[in-house]
Amino acid sequence: MSDSHQPHNIVVTGGAGFIGSNFVRHWCQKYPNDRLIVLDALTYAGNRANIADLEQTANLKFVQGDIGDRQLVDQLLQTEKIEAIAHFAAESHVDRSILEPGAFIQTNLVGTFTLLEAFRQHWQQQNKPDHYRFLHVSTDEVYGSLEANDPAFSETTPYAPNSPYSASKAGSDHLVRAYFHTYSMPTMITNCSNNYGPYHFPEKLIPLMCINILLGKTLPVYGDGQNIRDWLYVEDHCRALDRVICKGKPGETYNIGGDNEVKNLDLVKLICNLMDELATDIPTRPASELITFVTDRLGHDRRYAIDATKIKTELGWTPQVTVEEGLRKTVQWYLTNRQWWQPLLSEEYQT
């Protein structure tokens, strides 16, 4: 299936974050003549170094700013003749949402509302062009938690968010859907499972384990380590989003999963084995000796799993990277790119 690629001038919100920057790389490589405007507030997880090399090209422009700044968003849509928004910008760390829920409501709900309103006005002023798109990148966490034998989340699974993070994303999904049904605005929603890969912020599970092993620190595993997640390699996710923008149907939701359900403890053990094999200088060997069980997270969802049948059958996308292959690439990336993550551990950066 060939992509009927349409929008050429795109705002990527959160394009200096983990998934956003991987998407920007994917798009720049595949569509080198398109113009991308990266709008990122550069909060803790946004890192301009993620796209520094791409800023040398004429077709990528970086703008530091907040998606809640209506004046700025209006100005970008107008002056850059924007045809699509790929909306990644979000507060996304569950533990942080438990400690400080306010920022999640502000960015994920109010910020998304601001973007929707700005894009609606822009789209209407241009006489509602057919090829304009608003892609909202969301999470499988909006569906709540699954028991061991429950069927995987599909696009029709009722929403049941359990953390302030997932509740704020669920709220933004509902707003995006409402803008399609109320204004016929060409919005689309994707709900993805846990991503992993290059440029992943060090507080997330996989990079944290890699870096802690290199530093000889303990590997904290929540509860009994039996929580299950479906792992999606970030490049597979970016291919899926490309397909949704170019081929997806306005008003639709597409679930994107990796077909890789793994228990947290098994995942950590896989990482330990890879580090034992690939890293020459780890202080503790075998690395699995560093595994330490810690008090479970509040309201910790037991299992997530995604049924991606719809995007596979309707848009012809399938994940190509197995969790073993993806983890090997990821571990190798953290070993090779220490100059990327080391500054993120500094006290100065942390504060």
Give a written overview of the molecule.
This protein has a domain at 9-200 and 231-260 and 299-320: Rossmann fold, CATH 3.40.50.720. The protein is built from 12 helices and 12 strands. Helix 1 packs across helix 7, helix 6 packs across helix 8 and helix 8 (264-278) crosses helix 10. With 351 residues, the protein is an alpha/beta fold. The strands form 3 sheets. The chain has a 7-stranded parallel β-sheet, sandwiched between helices. Strands 7-9-11 form a 3-stranded mixed β-sheet. The protein starts with 8 loop residues before the first strand and ends with a helix. It has helices at 18-30, 70-79, 94-99, 101-125, 164-183, 205-215, 234-247, 264-278, 309-315, 323-336, 338-341, 347-350; strands at residues 9-13, 35-40, 60-64, 84-87, 133-139, 187-192, 194-196, 219-222, 228-233, 253-256, 261-263, 291-294. Helix 5 links the parallel strand 5 and strand 6.
